Amino acid sequence: MNTEELKLQGFTGDIHDSHTYKLLYATDASIYRELPSGVVFPKNANDIQILIRFASKTGQSIIPRGAGTSLAGQCVGNGIVMDVSRYMNEVVSIDLETKSAWVQPGLVRDELNRQLSETSLIFGPNTSTSNRATVGGMVGNNSSGTTSVAFGVTRDKVLELEVILADGTICRVDKNGIEADEDKDSVILTNLQTYFDLFFNNNELHDEIARQFPLEEIHRRNTGYALDLLLRDSGADRPNWLNVICGSEGTICAISKIKLKLDTKPLKHGVLLTSHFSSLDGALRHVPLILSLDKIYALELMDDVILDCARSNTPLKSKMHFVEGQPRALLITEIRSKSESELSTLIAEFKQLNSQNSDLYHTSETYGSQMKDVWYVRKAGLGILANIPGAAKALACIEDTAVKPDQLANYIQEFEDLMKVFGQKVVYYAHAGAGELHLRPVLNLRAETDREDFRKICTASAKLIKRYRGSLSGEHGDGRVRAPFLKEYYGEIIYGEFLKLKKTFDPDFIFNPGKIVEAKDILENLRYDLPTPDKRADIQYFNYEPDATILHYTERCNGSGDCRKSHALSPGMCPTYQATGKEIHSTRARANLMREAVANRNESNLLSIKNLDESLSSCLSCKACAIECPSTVDVAILKAEYLYQRRKQGYKSWRDRLLANPAKLYRLNKFIPFSRTLVNSSVGKYVLSAIGLTHNRSLPMPVKRPLRQLLSKYNAKPAQSTQKKITLAIDEFVNYFDVAAGIACYEVLIHFGYEIRLWYYDSGRAFMSKGYLKEAEKVAQHNVSEIEKELKHSFAIVGIEPSAIFSFRDEYKRFPFMKDRTGYENILSRIRSFEEFLLDEMIAGELDLSDYSFHNDVRVLCHLHCHQRALSTNYQATSQLFNAISGWICNIINTGCCGMAGGFGYEKEHYELSMQVANLGLFPEIRNNPQVALVAAGMSCRHQIRDGVQRKAMHPAQVLMKYLIK
Prior knowledge:
966 residues, alpha/beta, six-stranded antiparallel beta sheet, 30 strands, globular
């Protein structure tokens, strides 16, 4: 792609044609992979005009993209990817009187509703990806989601569009037609009028549409171009092109602005009724009965495969409280009403209806905030299917079929019989109330036999859905996976009309070619078409079970883009993406690039992917992805693996060696004493800069005397003779840098009556963060052996620094020495952080804080270490502990990683990014609460707060000691 020519033509947005960006945008959430010629980020409609003219002149195509969450391959191709999510993402205006809003196509659906939160309005359609899916993408796919029973689909909500045609003409489109914004001639507009005149007067074509299109009762559909709706909603002189453009998957024009109809928010009182069935057929035959009731807001299905995956997924496991026993299928029904009494009546009617089904054995009721748990599990259905271990995956290929709800049971019975021919047990979930189930066979697309089965299954499924006059696609669109079957589904006449429509709008096939019409073969450009590397052992240090290899582990990322959520919508994953808005800083990008690296056999250096270092080195290793990614892709593990492999290939860094070993830094300080004066001097700043550290921070100074020496002479004694023996595990950070936190933990535990053994250990955390995995494994092996000895003397091991003590729960289990070790889970059950331990003791009745005197009216603001959020048995332990003290109020700051991330924030090239992350939520929240005490268990977090807002944060033990009346 000639980037200079595009710039010369006046394109003001960002342009990228590097191999890295091509790799980042070679996949979406589908099974396909194809390198684009470049990636651009337009800033406005004028940029899109320029891009269209450039593409036309150079013979290239344009692939529109929002969040890249499309499951059918709509965003994959060899043209120029036009990503509108970076700049064209604003709410232009909201009109409360007309209940409408003008928005740009890159605006995220949930962001629109966040801005509507103070009104009585919402945008109703809600895809499972609503916290990152863009409105433009929803228009392109005619998206809907769980609430289509109540709110309909996106097509129902589009009032007007600003579009740009293939000749660069900007037009306004509404239900009465299409016209240019400016008074200028457009050959395409003239040809469109001619096309419509012929179409409207072609009675033979109208009869064919009536015979071939899906049944009118099937509202959720996006199969081909909506000629039936063009005919239904148009007058002789006013073509309604809105219905055609909505659902056209970016194949006939570009969209630069969208006017949406808004809905009134759901009725105040609601309940989720989860019906448990012993058979799938029993659940499906119950669907029409439920739909006969009033005030049904949503009706969703999940099968036992989804539920089993959820039970093995750490963040989902705690949200499964609504499931009773081992159902074959669940129907989740949301009912809304104006009053509690009306809701009670509706529930009674619902249960009376349920009593008629012998396959239904239980109905759970979920109210209030816990309703979010149910929908969280349901929405995670797509991502958690990637947790199936090994090369075979639940594939999005036939997953979007829709029939009339009263046909659903019979259709699925025939479908199951069909799948038995291929030896398939299919996964079922999604929108039962709309007659749409997402059906996924489990196949290994690296195996020739499975690839052929893939083609045969898709072909057979298309024929079956045609017999029911159903829709090949209910909401995910045709893309590359269903477009090959449109000619057979509709017949030559309708398919020929699709081609005419496409060529009239887009004579040179500039817009997203190969989608809907003239599709490539279904097996071309598969993501999994690369051969399995035969040198996997050379690129893998950690154990990735239950995945067979690191390649299979990276392939867990199916591209669903949960890591693209904004901080305003969901603090956590992925903080660097939230800070920069750049795909290269997302969890998905890192997994994609690592997958490309380990699958690349054409290079002698298996980690030679350019800019892989830029992407992975900017990872904070916060582990938010380990719990928030439905596929549980832990990029911190991949980063450590990458750094290790890079060192094997000869990379060396004095800075990394310095940061990787705090104990050596302490010993160095004994011979060459550091001082803040020296570090802040011009010489000190020069030295820091030379080795790659920033001079914008106050560096943590090693102490003169480690905690081991201080506590050996400490005067505190057990308050009384006790059998409450514990081991206080003092890590390298506390021992050499943060002795005040260690002393406070010691004093608190003594004061609460515990007899303490002291165990000093190096956790290996810094080794792991810098990829010194062999050194870290030696440390881990020693620690596991030592901790087994300690547990013979103590009933619990209590840690101080979260990132150190939680290493036992996380990375240690992935080291090779742990592969055949048994009984480790029993060891883990007795390892606790300081906060976890005290809370567990309080819950068990062994510690009563009312026995001790504390100052009243203490207000505490708590920042959680990111490893606490990801790995703690109860990440709210600090706030629950403090709130149990009379007169205390402790609130957790709703944010993710602080941005310091150990040594990350001290590195010169990462300092600005570190501060950007902190300014997402942490710093503003602290500035807004100047009078409260600040608590943060992580040493790095406390340093970040001190550097960024000049406030002192304390370890939880320090807070307890400060306000304890002795």
